[in-house]
Amino acid sequence: MFKFILGGGTQKKTDVGVGVDVGGGEEQEEGRISCGTVMVDHIDLQNLPEGCIANVVSLTTPRDACRLSSVSRSFKSASESDAVWDRFIPPETHTILSLQSPSSSVSSSPSSTSNSKSKSKKELYLTLCDNPVLIEQGKMSFSLEKSSGKKCYMISARALSIVWADTPHYWKWISLPDSRFEEVAELVSVCWLEIRGKIGRRMLSPSTLYKAYLVFKSTAGAYGFDHQPVEVSVGMLGGEEEPTRGRVFLDAERGQNTAYHIAPGPRRIGLINRRHFLGYQSSQPREINEAQYPKERDDGWLEIELGEFFCQGGGDGGDGELEMACLEVTGGHWKGGLIVQGIEIRPKVKD
């Protein structure tokens, strides 16, 4: 945090991370201003060159920059300048945007020539936060995490490795208007569920803790997930560190289902559903761990955490691929009614 010391006295801190000393302090000399470790003569903050303020603000975070813009007019001008927001946009962003898919679903493409020239760096930043851009021939989306500017990706279902995905008896490919990708995978019926996704380590932001999520929906006739957990993991392929592993449930109703009811469809059997018929209807109540169940996203889809991974910074990041997996291959129970949009990898946001 940068502290501006005006005069001597007791230090007061604002909620924007700027400390102002307005009385006689013991550690600072009266009538002097401190910025980091540099001491200069007393000066009115309003008289600081905008470039100086912008340089300081650019060393904070996008969230802090927005807060600092409320300090004064000079801070507002500096905090919204291209010099500041250009520092918040990852340097390889323009290379990524040059690979943008022609079928990108973003209504206002941030990489188009006219938009790039007319948009300020702050506008470009916010566009990339709110409107994921399709890359890799439309099989992956790219965006920025709003509070930090770290890179986010979603790997489409088409780019995932899904066992039997091209066998219509088990999976089918459909289009949904609320998906960012042209196709999503709908699970018809399988007893072996295996979904894996990979992403190059260098594509991620360095020195960042990432979390991976399976993004999906359940159909009205979904079955087989309420009392049968799936195994999830996230880790480097061939890495020395053990992947993070866990067990989660893909039941959108959080395990609370109706055992006996009439529900039309080919995957229902008479007055009872298939999970009861196959003998894995649980009669014992199970303690619910919220982290093991899906949560609804702002876009209306569901997501379940697969695990986390810390991407090293600098030259320690190295090459290699990060793999995310979601498996249910041991129970032998049939399941269906899952619609997979993809796997999202995004930075963990501090509470």
Automatic annotation (TrEMBL):
InterPro entries: F-box-like_dom_sf, F-box_dom, PP2-like. CDD domains: F-box_AtSKIP3-like. Pfam families: F-box, PP2. Residues 101-117 have a biased composition (Low complexity). Residues 99-118 are annotated as: Disordered. Residues 42-88 form the F-box domain. It comes from the Eukaryota. This is F-box protein PP2-B12. It comes from Prunus mume. The lineage of its organism: Eukaryota, Viridiplantae, Streptophyta, Embryophyta, Tracheophyta.
